[in-house]
Specification:
This protein has 14 helices and 20 strands. Residues 343-355 have low confidence and may be disordered. The two termini are 49 Å apart. The radius of gyration is 26 Å and the shape is globular. It has three domains: 8-195, Class I glutamine amidotransferase (GATase) domain (Rossmann fold, 3-Layer(aba) Sandwich); 204-392, Rossmann fold (3-Layer(aba) Sandwich); 411-506, GMP Synthetase, Chain A, domain 3 (2-Layer Sandwich), CATH 3.30.300. It is of the alpha/beta class and 519 residues long. The structure holds xanthosine-5'-monophosphate.
């Protein structure tokens, strides 16, 4: 089997909000990449054995004392280097050029005039020899290092890109990794394929083949336990492990009573019946609801749900004999982000991931087959492994489930009402095509009674809020501008079909200042 990570690109992160996107774009071009903080050691860079190096953008100015620099070895290895934005500036400065402090911050769309066609800009130009790019910078390169030529410019930026093709050094002031740069994908493909000479081995089928071989080797004939939640990551881990080791895998699915309508049955049918995976269902609704009785504080509810999960899962795990490994759906952004929060920057360290607080007597070794994959790669893998697309492209669902969508105290009566309301909302979003246009949508139970009229009488019943947001990163979000006719249809159905609901409201708050969830 070919080693599909042999052609590999190293990305050094200078702290730009777009750094992870660079790694994703490189992988979308079929080339394996990893991202490390800019100051990893020379030895680590050599050991990584990159076919090319990309220096990311960053928020700093090279003029600030102590601002980050690329390790000098980057320019000495003889492999191609692409500097993006700050990466281009520090490369220029480090190689003898000059960076000018920006008076005006250039932010947004710009058109570059391509003045010299190098390998990087191959196929980028339109009929006017221009290309649309996305700029976001204050400083700019004012004098190129020796050996470099300017390859494009904008009215405010004489060196929008430049290169020294003899030394295989390239720089762009704009951001090819964001979709606003019209030919960004092509530019990155030019770098990794035409300039670095990488093949295109990094794709779902090859990743699956490689991962299965690795899992077989790591696990041998031992037994593996996996907590299946029904979410994308644990589902893909289950499918992958099942292919690799078959019956040596046992999944535990904890039904906490806070899941969506029929979700427990669907998980059991999908993984148990359709895929033939051994799944133990722990029906723990009463236990969770019992522990939540009388509790209204959202953070206290989250803690209780987390604690009960660990206890139920541990009890199930103890019933199994001879399990050596615990599988987890950790993905690459978790690795980068958990390292970043420790170090204050993106720093990929090979630490043992936290096992989610299992008790000491359950000392498993970890299996994390998605640890080096981005979410979009995990999704593609899932589809290639035969998991239905509607499960793979489902909106995210929080760990505490309906526990944080029932405001205040959680009761079974409330959860049952909310499940039906949420299901009606989802049915209508899917039927109208709005499900895929929103990033997350759900119903929220309001424990207040509002008056309504039924026939000649008045009835006091509960209130359901609908929440639908558009977002890419979930850090900011705007409420989805659902058509009034659709909102009308949903609210009418909810009030007609659920006796105990007398009023439906639509949440028109954006994040910030509101959050996506109500608790
Ligand atoms: P907020 O409400 O913070 O949500 O704007 C951002 C994203 O995080 C999800 N979320 C959670 N996920 N456990 C989770 O696993 C939680 O306690 C939790 N709280 C919020 C939320 O659904 C949204 O996708």
């Amino acid at each position: 089997m070919t080693n599909i990570t042999a052609d590999r690109i190293l990305i050094l992160d200078f702290g730009s909000q777009y750094s992870q996107l660079i790694a994703r774009r490189v992988r979308e071009a079929g080339v394996y990449s990893e991202m490390y903080a800019y100051d990893i050691s020379e030895e680590d860079i050599r050991n990584f054995n990159p076919k090319g190096i990309i220096l990311s953008g960053g928020p700093e100015s090279v003029h600030i004392e102590g601002s980050p620099r690329a390790p000098q070895v980057v320019f000495e290895l003889g492999v191609p280097v692409l500097g993006i934005c700050y990466g281009f500036q520090t490369m220029s400065e480090q190689l003898g050029g000059k960076v000018e402090a920006g008076v005006v911050h250039e932010f947004g769309y710009a058109k570059i005039d391509i003045t010299h066609q190098d390998k990087l800009l191959h196929g980028i130009a339109d009929e006017n020899n221009q290309s649309q790019v996305w700029m976001s910078h204050g400083d700019k390169v004012a004098r190129l290092p020796e050996g470099f030529v300017s390859t494009s410019s904008t009215p405010s930026c004489p060196f929008a890109s430049a290169s020294d093709e003899n030394r295989k050094l390239y720089g762009v002031q704009f951001h090819p990794e964001v979709t606003h740069t019209a030919k960004g994908v092509e530019l990155i493909a030019n770098f990794v394929h035409k300039i670095c000479g990488c093949g295109s081995e990094w794709n779902s089928d090859n990743i699956i083949e490689m991962r299965i071989a690795q899992l077989k080797q790591q696990i041998g004939d031992n037994k593996v336990l996996l907590g299946l939640s029904g979410g994308v990551d644990s589902s893909v881990v289950a499918a992958l492990l099942h292919r690799a080791i078959g019956d040596q895998l046992t999944c535990v699915f904890v039904d906490n009573g806070l899941l969506r309508l029929n979700e427990g049955d669907q998980v059991m049918q999908m993984f148990g019946e359709n895929m033939g995976i051994r799944v133990i269902r722990a029906d723990a609704e009463e236990r969770f609801l019992g522990a939540l009785a009388g509790v209204t504080d959202p953070e206290a509810k989250r803690k209780i749900i987390g604690r009960e999960f660990i206890e139920v899962f541990s009890e199930e795990a103890r019933k199994l004999d001879g399990v050596k490994f615990l599988a987890q759906g950790t993905i690459y952004p978790d690795v980068i982000e958990s390292a970043a929060s420790k170090q204050g920057k993106a720093h990929v360290i090979k630490s043992h991931h936290n096992v989610g607080g299992l008790p000491d007597d359950l000392a498993f070794e970890l299996v994390e087959p998605l640890r080096d994959l981005f979410k979009d790669e995990v999704r593609k893998l899932g589809v290639a492994l035969g998991i239905p697309a509607h499960m793979i492209y489902r909106h995210p669902f929080p760990g505490p489930g309906l526990g944080v969508r029932i405001l205040g105290e959680v009761k079974k009566e409330y959860a049952d009402i909310l499940r039906v309301a949420d299901d009606i909302f989802m049915q209508e979003l899917r039927a109208s095509g709005w499900y895929d246009k929103t990033a997350q949508a759900f119903a929220v139970f309001q424990p207040v009674k509002s008056v309504g009229v039924v026939g000649d009488g008045r009835r006091y019943a509960w209130v359901i809020a609908l929440r639908a947001v558009e977002t890419v990163d979930f850090m900011t979000a705007r409420f989805a501008h659902l058509p009034y006719e659709l909102v009308d249809k949903i609210s009418t159905r909810i009030m007609n079909e659920i006796r105990d609901v007398s009023r439906v409201v639509y949440d028109v708050s954006s994040k910030p200042p509101a959050t996506i969830e109500w608790e």
